[in-house]
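During the reporting period the student researcher (J.K.) took over the structure-prediction task from the postdoctoral fellow and processed the backlog of single-chain submissions. One of the processed entries is reproduced below for the supervisory committee.
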Amino acid sequence: QVQLVESGGGLVQAGGSLRLSCAASGRTFSSYVMGWFRQAPGKEREFVAAISRSGLSTNYVDSAKGRFTISRDNAKNTVFLQMNSLKPEDTAVYYCAARATTFVVTTSGEYSYWGQGTQVTVSS
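J.K. obtained the following structure tokens:
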């Protein structure tokens, strides 16, 4: 089992940047595919990015490509989401998630473990 704690959210102006972190407990972090999801008020939770266990393979929602970068540090049990050129429509609660699998997946139901979320607000 793994516990996830997100940090790094906040209020930023459009065009600005934020770096989200997700710290995982346990000694098997490198066994998990990690993902970032977000949920805006009144909307369903949506996939943002995911990264393979080794960090060599990544996947992004189209709206994040070229602006967001997911990375991980297996030695520090941490996954990151660097968000640049933020837009008001990026405003949401961002969650990290973990799945003990080989393959990078983008469906929230495929992930077994979730953090509590961190709020990102982008003002126009």
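The committee noted the following: The mean pLDDT is 96.
J.K. will present the remaining backlog at the next meeting.
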